[in-house]
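A further point concerns the way the authors explain their paired sequence and structure data. Nothing conveys this as quickly as seeing an actual entry. An entry of this sort, consisting of the sequence and the corresponding backbone structure tokens, reads as follows:
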Amino acid sequence: MSRLSGSEIKSKLTGLNGWVFKDNAITKIFTFSAYMDGIKFVNKLANKAEAANHHPDLVIGWCRVEVAFTSHDQGGVTEKCLQMAIETDAIKL
């Protein structure tokens, strides 16, 4: 899967709520009412990422998780990153 151009990424992100393109990745911050809800979210995301063999960079904080997808192999954002963003948004707690 090849790397997308900046304009392709920005165009495709218009259909994804809250995702932004920065630092050669697509990122979104998810907030939760309790710390453990964020941990449950991360565990669900980890299972999806492992199944897809496309793993995000995660920053876990108090009631907050920042998720970033990029393809290290391709040197930027690919269609697989965008698909994983959709899968991440679909996680229900």
